[in-house]
Each structure stands twice: as structure tokens, then as C-alpha cells.
Design goal:
The complex is a heterodimer. Chain A is of the alpha+beta class. In chain A, 36% of the residues lie in helices and 26% in strands. In chain A, a hairpin with a 3-residue loop joins strand 4 and strand 5 (68-72). The longest helix of chain A is centred in the last third of the chain and has 26 residues, at 264-289. Chain B is α+β, with helices and mostly antiparallel strands. The N and C termini of chain B lie far apart (53 Å). The chains are: A alpha+beta, B alpha+beta.
């Protein structure tokens, strides 16, 4: 096992500079719940761990009906789950974050890590994709902002540059009468990886769907949008027939594989059922807000 | 290998130690600081046997690098009892026979303390969800859940 260097920079500029020394094979350490296991198992290697948890910009956590949500990349899921305003405004994202791992894992795991780890079955990614969240990053070229959808490339991969740090995830303030929801299917009650995950944001105005976004997890190489399904709802009353149709259309957006968690056919069936349930949950929340 | 110097607070007392960057908090607690109450189970963050409190949040010490705790506050199972007076959770675990082999017990006690510190009156479901990251292969969990609920009731007075 080669020598490992550990640093905990106190500023973003210092972190960017440390990461720029490619010869050291640096890796960003946030919660470490994936990285430390991968390093120990030899799945990933690193010569230098840059612990980003002491950088103030990465510890921001703010939620308000005016300015929306800002979650720093080092904020553990537990802090987000305990944040009353975040839960009030983005119940779908918070329920997704609350599903990740155990209490112990929640204390460490971050939304940013869930996203950057690039698992197709990540719970918070469909929730963020449905919310059209954006990512603010820092790198040698300065600060960049892009949509979560632009970050998703493939299993275990993102479009982040090797020296680019995810600083924070931002979500716009919820539109009037809009609400989000996330649910997943796992074979037991807790502590498992999604067979299928579905996130949705729905806006209701005058009893009809004004806008909708539906994102699917664990049924493709990355989380993906079910655009046809979402479009089918717009302008319609959100009744059972509309949900049934959206569920069926979401199935055609899914590109699942068969693995130990479920066959492709089973996953397609689950997408339809789960999409209906998630939409129903988002509708109920949106009605309370409208 | 060059070692890192780390200072932290362990069970209310200042500690300092030298560690390699790769060493986990669990290894340092047991092998350097002689706090062997914290157990290693899976070493992959699945079983909760190595649970400790890091700045009042329960974490798996096998998934924390030792240098990460610089300046932080740590609590382990050794910090639960007040001298010879067991913590109510420890007493209730004994009364309810909520342990058999005992390897998972320190982790359960620390995780349960984290719950009761935040929520003095948890429901049975809340206890079960909160402790889902702690595995016990002996008791079947029921006695553990009862012990935690009973300790919570006693601590509420």
C-alpha cells in the first residue's frame, strides 16, 4: 500500500491548489462513506486525500421560500434532514436524503457525494433531477454553474473535471402550488439500495397540472428524466387516468438492466406503479400549497 | 511514514495522538488510545459495532480517518458511565438481558444515546429505524428496543 497524504484545507482556493497537483493523485474526501471503503477494497486508489469538510463555502445550509435551497457539498444528510425549512419546502428531496443508509451513514454522507459517486441507484439524484437543481463548482478556471442533468454521464462517472470541486447544490424556490416527492422500492423496510427510485415535482394551478418533471433512478446508466410522461400531465386534471397514463409513459423512458436486485421486466413494471404513487404524493402536497 | 499529530476531546478530556493518514478513528481508539470498548465488526460501515459520537452525531469509527477528528469532540462507550454509576441505558440493557455475546453492545449503547439526546421520547418505530444501522446476531433486537424505550422512560422521570 503506497503512502497516503491527508490535508484538510480551510479555504476553497487552497483546496483547488492542492487538487491541482495531479502527480499526487488527489481525491476529494467529504463524508467518505463510499471513498474510504473503495480505497480499502482497492477499487479506487489515491495518493492524497483532500478533506473538504473544513471549507466554509461547503458547509452552507440555507432554505427559504424566497431564495430556495443551498446545500454545501460537505453538509451531511443528517443536517439536511433536521433542517425544518428544507423539509417544509422540499419534502421530496429530504425524504430521499433520509433514505440513504443508517443513522451512522446519515451523519457523514452528503448529497454532493451521492451525486459525485455516480451510482445509477443514488436516491437523491432523481430527487435533484426532478427539481432541476444546479451545481456550483470551483476549479482552476474559476467558478461554474451547471444543471444536475449535465453532471450525469454514466455509472461511477460525472462531467466534473479532475480538479473541479463541487461547492454547493442549489434548488430554486418552489413555484406557487408546486411540490416534490421521492419514493423507492426496496425489498425490505430500510438499509438497502433502490431497485427503482422515482422523483417528481408537480405544479397545480386551478385544479390542473401546470408543470411536471419526473426523474427515474436505477433504471438506466444514470438517473434520467421521463419527459413524455411529465408532458402528458400538463394541462390535465391530475386524476387517476392521467396518473395511469403517466406511469405507462414513464415505463417507456426506463432503460433498465437485469441484475441481482431485479429483472429489467420487473423494474419496468415497478416504474409504472412507483411513478403513480410518487405523483399522487406530490399532488397531495401541491394541493395543500395551492 | 510521516505521522500526523492530532488533538481532540475524548469523553470530556483532551487527548493527542500520532497517526498515519490511512488509520481509521477505530484503529486509533483501540490501538493507540487504549479505548477498546469500541468494537470492530464489519469494517465497512454496515454493522454499527464501532459507533462513536463525533461532535454529538453517531458515526461508524471505521469510516472516519483518524486525522479527520482534529479539534473535534468524541464520545465512546467508556464515557457513558459516571464512575461506578452505569448510564440508564447500560442498566436497562442488563435488566432486559439486551445482550448476549456483547460485541454489538457498545455500538448499540452509543447509537441509542445519540437518539435519546435528540429525542427523549421516541416511539418504538423511531427506535427501530434509528438503530437499523446496528446489527445484533444474538438477541433478535426486541430486548434491545425494550431496553432503550425503558431507559428513555426512566430518563424522562
Amino acid at each position: 500500500m503506497r503512502e497516503l497524504r491527508y490535508t484538510a484545507p480551510a479555504s476553497l482556493a487552497e483546496a483547488v491548489s492542492l487538487l491541482s497537483d495531479a502527480g499526487q493523485d488527489p481525491r476529494i474526501l467529504a463524508g467518505g462513506t463510499d471513498l474510504l471503503i473503495q480505497l480499502r477494497a482497492g477499487v479506487r486508489d489515491a495518493g492524497h486525500l483532500v478533506d473538504v469538510k473544513r471549507i466554509p463555502e461547503l458547509n452552507v445550509l440555507e432554505a427559504s421560500p424566497e431564495d430556495g435551497l443551498r446545500v454545501g457539498a460537505a453538509v451531511p444528510c443528517a443536517s439536511l434532514v433536521e433542517h425544518a425549512a428544507a423539509g417544509e419546502l422540499y419534502p421530496g428531496l429530504v425524504e430521499a436524503a433520509a433514505l440513504i443508509g443508517s443513522t451512522q451513514i446519515q451523519s457523514r454522507a452528503t448529497l454532493a457525494g451521492n451525486l459525485c459517486n455516480g451510482s445509477p441507484a443514488a436516491d437523491t439524484t432523481p430527487a435533484l433531477l426532478a427539481l432541476d437543481a444546479t451545481c456550483v463548482t470551483a476549479g482552476p478556471g474559476g467558478s461554474r454553474t451547471r444543471h444536475v442533468s449535465e453532471l450525469l454521464v454514466g455509472p461511477g462517472r460525472t462531467s466534473l473535471e479532475p480538479r473541479e470541486i463541487l461547492v454547493e447544490i442549489r434548488v430554486a424556490a418552489p413555484a406557487k402550488g408546486a411540490a416534490d416527492a421521492y419514493q423507492r422500492l426496496i425489498p425490505r423496510g430500510e438499509m438497502d439500495i433502490a431497485v427503482v427510485g422515482v422523483g417528481a415535482v408537480l405544479q397545480i394551478a386551478d385544479g390542473r397540472v401546470a408543470s411536471a418533471r419526473i426523474a427515474l433512478g436505477a433504471v438506466g446508466p444514470t438517473a434520467l428524466l421521463a419527459e413524455e410522461a411529465a408532458a402528458s400531465l400538463v394541462g390535465k386534471a391530475p386524476d387517476e387516468a392521467a396518473l395511469e397514463r403517466a406511469g405507462a409513459l414513464a415505463t417507456s423512458a426506463a432503460r433498465p438492466i437485469s441484475d441481482k436486485r431485479g429483472s429489467a421486466e420487473y423494474r419496468r413494471d415497478v416504474v409504472s406503479v412507483l411513478t403513480r404513487r410518487v405523483l399522487a404524493s406530490a399532488i397531495e402536497r401541491a394541493r395543500r400549497r395551492a | 511514514m510521516r505521522k500526523l499529530h492530532v488533538t481532540a476531546e475524548l469523553n470530556g478530556e483532551a487527548v493527542e495522538f500520532l497517526c498515519e493518514p490511512r488509520q481509521t478513528l477505530l484503529e486509533v481508539l483501540r490501538d493507540v488510545l487504549d479505548h477498546t470498548g469500541t468494537k470492530e465488526g464489519c469494517a465497512t460501515g454496515d454493522c454499527g459495532a464501532c459507533s462513536v459520537l463525533l461532535d454529538d452525531r453517531v458515526v461508524c469509527s471505521c469510516l472516519v480517518l483518524a486525522p479527520e477528528v482534529e479539534g473535534r469532540k468524541l464520545q465512546t462507550v467508556e464515557g457513558l458511565a459516571d464512575g461506578d454509576h452505569l448510564h440508564p441505558l447500560q442498566r436497562k440493557f442488563l435488566e432486559h438481558a439486551a445482550l448476549q455475546c456483547g460485541i454489538c453492545t457498545p455500538g448499540f449503547l452509543v447509537a441509542a444515546k445519540a437518539l435519546l439526546d435528540r429525542n427523549p421520547d421516541p416511539s418504538e418505530a423511531e427506535v427501530r429505524y434509528h438503530l437499523a444501522g446496528n446489527l445484533c446476531r444474538c438477541t433478535g433486537y426486541d430486548k434491545i428496543v425494550r431496553a432503550v424505550l425503558d431507559a428513555a422512560a426512566e430518563m424522562r422521570g
